[in-house]
Amino acid sequence: MRFAADLPPQWHATVSVGGMMRTVLYALVPALLAHVWFYGAGILLNSGIALLAALATEAACLRLGGKPTAPDLFDGSALVTAVLFAFCLPPLCPWWVTVIGMVFGIGVAKHAYGGLGYNIFNPAMAGYVLVLVSFPEAMALWPAPDIGDLDYLRPDLAATLHYCLLGSLPDGLTIDAVARATTLDSAKEGLGLMRTMDEIRANPGFGDFGGAGWEWISNCIAIGGFVLLLRGVIRWHTPAAVLGGLLTMATLAWLLDPNTHPSPGFHLFSGGAMLGAFFIATDPVSSPTTARGRLIYGAGIGILTYAIRTFGSYADGVAFAVLLMNVTVPLLERWTRPRVYGRAG
Amino acid sequence: MTDPIAYDAQPRRPAWGVRTPLRKSLSTRQPILVAPPPPLVCISLAQCPGGAARATVAPGQRVLCGEPIGEPTGAGRPRFHASISGQVTHVEARLVAGLGAPVPCVVILGDGTDRRWPGYPPDPGADGRSSGDLQAGLAAAGLLGLGGALFPTAHKVHTATGAPVLLLNGTECEAYISCDDALLRERAASVVAGGRLLLAALGGQRCIIAVKTDMPQARVALYNALQACGDPRVVMSVVTAKYPAGGERQLIELVLGREVPAGGHPADVGVLCQNVATAAAAADFFLRGQPLISRLVTVSGGGVARPCNIEARIGTPVSDLMALAGGYQREPRRLIMGGPMMGVALPSDDLAITGATSCLIAATDADLGPAAEEMSCIRCGDCIEACPASLLPQELLVATRAGNAAELATLGVTECIECGACDYVCPSHIPLTRHFIRAKAALAST
Questions:
Q1: Residue of A49, A190, A317, B418 with fewest CB within 10 Å of its CB?
Q2: What is the DSSP letter of B408?
Q3: What are the beta bridge partners of residue B348?
Q4: Across the interface, do B348 and A118 touch by the CB < 8 Å criterion?
Q5: Which residues of B fall within a CB distance of 8 Å from A119?
Q6: Is the predicted pLDDT of residue B52 greater than 90, yes or no?
Q7: Which residue has the higher pLDDT, A173 or A106?
């Protein structure tokens, strides 16, 4: 009887890039639901726009590069990039801002460097930083979360759509009525005005640790992160190092003077710390592959995030920290090569 | 009180490696099936690495079972024996299982009598003989490393003479393969006796027989055999069922905590490693006067009706063994010789088995899972965790594609043991090991 000859190995674990990306998306579902609970459907709208822009850009780049569109177009990586990007955007966000961010993230940060697997920078972070520095007003417009306060005015779906498509709110709603400074902004501004943290925290927007509402989204992101750990999609080194680096810096400063430094808990549950630790810094393509490399890389992101939040002009620093550490990855890889079995150290 | 038979208190657990489905119980439900002498055998004279043996028989000549048919052409090469009695019909180059090119073979048409050649009398007092005598006996028996490498045992023992530790490998870490497990379950005494003979041939001090956590019956049988034997120099060690814990260097690292230097041999760290089946074959030769004419072959997979372990004559066509195991069912997709990790898919079942044929898998789609499309490396690093040699497969891949020989050497591609663990875990389904095998060959040829 005849058979097809073949070289080993003859089989394969049931893992795939698409499967990993799907797991990442499932892990983001709790945080997405929390986001919708506190901020309305804006993130879903932004995700959808970002996904369309990402897929269109990816298809165009693959076509330009003379590569087949399948399977790369449908490996799920564009969807993950789009959703992570949408997590960075304010729920009220004009559509062209989203599109510009994704076209840059996918087209330049990802495909100009060779596509999935070759990009130096995390595409979602590259897109976010581009729109953050290009459209500061749009990025500063965070509506207040729905935390049950009486004077809360939630922009409904129609208002969100109106703002998204036209860049303005419908008649009867003003930006000032729905927007509120994020807690990271309040802390930065307040400390700049020589207020103490206790005075700043009297603001009703503050919750137990970070921003009211936002800290619950952070919790959900962390839950998703643990799902990724348990499913073996990510390893513990990077998130532990990011959070450890941020926590170490924040704790040292806070012990020095708790009046002029936000608490470690505030740093951990505010802004992009959790998302960065579990979903951004763990992006395999733009992070180191060795365990020691991941520890250094993650610690670098945590420390830089703290430094940018404290000394920089932006309220949050996760995206900048990630991009800065992305640059160091080739060097870290070279430094942290393990000793080959049987060879002298 | 410590157990005098157990070498270690806890199973040895590797940091590297992969867990695969094992599916060994498919073929261990029934006892070893001793195959009757087949009507025809085709015995390769080039089973071990290096040159082929010179045929000492001619077409038309009658041979007895166990009679020498090929003599070594160089130092350290083995002798080959007729595995059935009958008449030589061809001495010519043929394809055999597991090799891509034809090799010199002796084809024997059996006469059905299975009469034995009387040239090797049993030697019950063999373990009292000198190391040199025993090594000469191993060479006469034509013993080959039955773990799969088929390295001539006499030569391997000779070059390691004086190494204090003999490590007998019964770990069999690949899926489906259960011939060492079956051997230990049913013939543990033979393994222990062979281990003592190899230890005497080596001039060593201690024999450690390594088995795995997932073979409880074999462990009990071996334990009882060791107790019955009562030789305090022979002990057993248990390692975790993880692939490739049974690799020679990996097992030495796990059991003894020693690292074989790159480019070196286990003897450099005072160890000789042999498969348990090789030890049993040594006992068969010295105590029963039987040279290497047969081996245990696992026949398994969803594509065969009655998976089992068969004691088969070397040179038996694969199709005969498949028939003994009940024949094919469910349209097998591949016919694999060896395990699914390192085995090759054979083009046909009319090829003859060699001493390296530990396992034949008639693999269906359900056995192997769906074929997957290759995608770009996403640098997830899972291959690094899997690699037992602490290599960086994803960087080796880049260097291989770039044809960067210097970088390949720096990254240590020569230390790749071709186990396939990196391929197995790769979410992008990149055939890494094939790249590395080619890169190693290219480096070796420059």
A1: B418
A2: H
A3: A2
A4: no
A5: none
A6: no
A7: A106
- Site of tokens 């365990």: A291
Task: Give the three-class secondary structure for B443.
Answer: helix
Distances (CA, A) of B164 to B33, B173, B264, B270: 36, 25, 17, 6
What torsion do the CA atoms of A230, A236, A239, A244 make, to the nearest 10 degrees?
Answer: 130
Pairing status of strand B103-110 against strand B86-94: antiparallel
Contact B20 A13 (CB under 8 A): yes
* Neighbouring C-beta atoms of residue A102, cutoff 10 Å: 31
pTM: 0.90
d(CA B65, CA B120): 11
Query: Which two tokens mark B136?
Result: 């000469």
Report how far apart, in Å, the C-alpha atoms of A129 and of each of A100, A317, A322, B431 are: 11, 10, 10, 37
Residue scoring higher pLDDT (B81 or A7): B81
Measured between CB atoms, does A12 come within 8 Å of chain B? Answer: yes
Confidence of residue A152 (pLDDT cuts 50, 70, 90): low
**Other C-beta atoms within 10 Å of B204: how many?**
23
Task: Kindly state the DSSP code that residue B119 receives in the 8-state scheme.
Answer: T
Cα–Cα distance measured from residue B313 to residue B35, given in angstroms and rounded to the nearest whole number: 8
Question: Rounded to the nearest 10 degrees, what angle do helices A77-88 and A42-64 cross at?
Answer: 140
- Give the residue among B112, B289, B111, B134 at the shortest CA–CA distance from B201: B134
Which of B138, B141, B202 shows the shortest CA–CA distance to B168? B202
Phi, psi (5° rounding) for residue B140?
A: -60, -35
Q: Which residues in A lie closer than 8 A to residue B380 (C-beta atoms)?
A: 20, 284, 289
What pLDDT score was predicted for residue B2? Answer: 60
What is the radius of gyration, based on Cα positions, of chain B? 21
Banded model confidence at residue B1, pLDDT cuts 50, 70, 90: very low
Give all strands (DSSP E) within B193-300, no chain letters: 206-212, 234-239, 271-275, 294-300
For A90, the token pair is: 């304010």
Tell me whether residue B372 is exposed, middle or buried, using C-beta atoms within 10 angstroms of its C-beta: 0 to 12, 13 to 18, 19 or more: middle
Distances (CA, A) of B343 to A7, B26, B331: 8, 18, 19
- Closest residue, chain B, to A12 (C-alpha): B424
Residue A3, min C-alpha distance to chain B (Å): 5
Residue found under tokens 């657990």: B13
How many C-beta neighbours within 10 Å does residue B335 have?
31
* B345: helix, strand or coil: strand
Nearest C-alpha neighbor of B396 from the set B420, B378, B416, B425? B416
Task: Please give the Cα distance from B292 to A218 (Å, whole number).
Answer: 67
Q: At what angle do helices A123-134 and A77-88 cross, to 10 degrees?
A: 30
Q: Select from B150, B130, B105, B153 the least CA-distant residue to B337.
A: B150
Taking the CA atoms of residue A231, residue A236, residue A240 and residue A241 in that order, the dihedral angle to the nearest 10 degrees is: -130
pLDDT tens digits for range A185-218: 888 888 888 888 888 888 878 888 888 889 999 9
Answer for the pair B175, B419: CB distance below 8 angstroms, yes or no: no
Beta-sheet pairing, B40-44 with B206-212: unpaired
User: How far apart are the CA of A284 and the nearest CA of chain B, in angstroms?
Assistant: 5
Helix H, strand E, coil C: the string for A239-291 is HHHHHHHHHHHHHHHHHHCCCCCCCHHHHHHCCCHHHHHHHHCCCCCCCCCCH
The nearest CA of chain B is from the CA of A282 a distance in Å of: 9
Query: Cβ distance B61 to B111 under 8 Å?
Result: no
Give the long-range contacts of residues A64-68, CB within 8 A, separation 24 or more.
Answer: A65/A111, A65/A115, A67/A115
DSSP A67-111: --STTGGGSSHHHHHHHHHHHHS-SS--HHHHHHHHIIIIIIIII
Complex ipTM: 0.89
B206-212 sheet: strands from edge to edge: B234-239, B206-212, B165-169, B271-275
